[in-house]
């Protein structure tokens, strides 16, 4: 029997793409989210942190496969909300799946769960969790992963975790918004670090592909325990790491076509990493004194300067995952989409 899908967080960037791809191939799919942005996929309004909400939707839809992409925005939410959604909410989803007899649960985590600020090169799934996660988002993703793995096999529930890296594409309002604002304010000539740090970026279409592959290949591991996917973790990237500032400059170069003459050739101002860390600490302290968010932090400096690229051999072999859209093509698409919005929507 074909699966019936529920995409939790289906109004978000990744969840939306997953839901549409499932719908486009003819699957029975619904969305659960706290906000409705689209009306072309059956939608259920609800907060996963409220007792009984997920179970009620599972019973109404008859879902056999849950794809859980919901999470607060990494750059804007506070610690309390991260713990509430990423940990408590995930545990409530697990409990609901077990009670409803759902057979498959696919969870969206993050490659950042193994990143502690040190360089990561060719990192695979054998890397341990970061002993000191860089922020509460990563800390709560680690705890959620542990709960998902522990649930594998309970009442015949099969679970799998995907760890995407650097998701971007049309519909993204975080990465592109930041780069757009930097462009408008004329700060594109500032570079922190030596730009020798390779970094993974992944088109959202490809990440959605990986989730659907995982769902398709996720089979009940009990009692045979033969599934190669159940209880497993997979890094998902484009297998094409870019130097960090080459990617950002690629976005800015594409924006030039919409703002001819805005940028004049200027010498690049390179700030060493150590100085960037000092400035980040200063801005954090200043922001704390003034009760506002800092414009620069030690985390953003670390993120901009560290090598962060991953080995996806396991995803290729076990899931059959192959990136179908290039980074350059997705850069074209996201800038075109962003500039198609009204100016008021870009702020």
From TrEMBL:
Ranges for domain 3-beta hydroxysteroid dehydrogenase/isomerase: 6-257
One MF term in the entry's GO annotations: oxidoreductase activity, acting on the CH-OH group of donors, NAD or NADP as acceptor
Cross-referenced Gene3D superfamilies, in alphabetical order?
NAD(P)-binding Rossmann-like Domain
| InterPro entries reported in the protein's UniProt record | 3Beta_OHSteriod_DH/Estase, Lipid_A_modif_metabolic_enz, NAD(P)-bd_dom_sf
Q: Name one GO biological process term.
A: steroid biosynthetic process
Q: Which UniProt keywords apply?
A: Oxidoreductase
Q: Does the keyword Calcium apply?
A: no
Pfam families for this protein: 3Beta_HSD
Q: Which SUPFAM superfamilies match?
A: NAD(P)-binding Rossmann-fold domains
- Keyword Oxidoreductase belongs to the record: yes
Q: Which domain of life is it from?
A: Eukaryota
Q: Give the record's family classification.
A: Belongs to the 3-beta-HSD family.
Question: Under which name does UniProt file this protein?
Answer: NAD(P)-binding protein
Q: What organism is listed for this UniProt entry?
A: Gymnopus androsaceus JB14
């Amino acid at each position: 029997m074909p699966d019936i899908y529920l995409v939790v967080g289906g109004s978000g960037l990744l969840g939306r793409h997953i839901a549409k791809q499932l719908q486009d191939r003819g699957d029975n799919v619904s969305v659960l989210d706290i906000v409705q942005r689209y009306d072309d996929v059956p939608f259920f309004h609800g907060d996963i942190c409220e007792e009984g909400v997920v179970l009620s939707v599972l019973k109404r839809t008859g879902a056999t496969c849950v794809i859980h992409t919901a999470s607060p925005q990494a750059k804007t939410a506070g610690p309390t909300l991260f713990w509430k959604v990423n940990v408590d909410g995930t545990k409530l989803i697990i409990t609901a799946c077990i009670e409803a007899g759902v057979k498959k649960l696919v969870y969206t985590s993050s490659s950042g769960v193994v990143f502690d600020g040190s360089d990561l090169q060719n990192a695979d799934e054998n890397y341990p969790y970061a002993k000191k996660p860089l922020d509460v988002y990563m800390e709560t993703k680690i705890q959620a992963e542990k709960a998902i793995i522990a649930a594998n096999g309970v009442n015949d529930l099969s679970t799998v975790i995907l760890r995407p890296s650097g998701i971007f594409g049309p519909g993204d309002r975080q990465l592109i918004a930041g780069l757009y604002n930097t462009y408008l304010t004329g700060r594109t000539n500032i570079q922190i670090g030596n730009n020798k740090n390779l970094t993974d970026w992944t088109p959202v279409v490809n990440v959605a592909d990986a989730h659907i592959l995982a769902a398709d290949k996720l089979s009940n591991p009990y009692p045979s325990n033969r599934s190669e996917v159940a209880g497993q973790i997979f890094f998902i990237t484009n297998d094409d790491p870019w130097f960090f500032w080459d990617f950002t400059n690629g976005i800015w170069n594409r924006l030039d076509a919409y703002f001819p003459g805005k940028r004049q050739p200027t010498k690049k101002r390179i700030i060493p990493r150590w100085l960037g860390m000092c400035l980040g600490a200063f801005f954090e302290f200043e922001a704390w004194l003034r009760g506002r968010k800092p414009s620069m932090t030690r985390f953003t400096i670390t993120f901009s300067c560290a090598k962060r690229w991953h080995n996806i051999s396991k995803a290729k072999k076990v899931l059959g995952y192959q990136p179908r859209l290039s980074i350059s093509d997705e850069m074209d698409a996201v800038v075109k989409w962003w500039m198609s919005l009204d100016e008021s929507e870009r702020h």
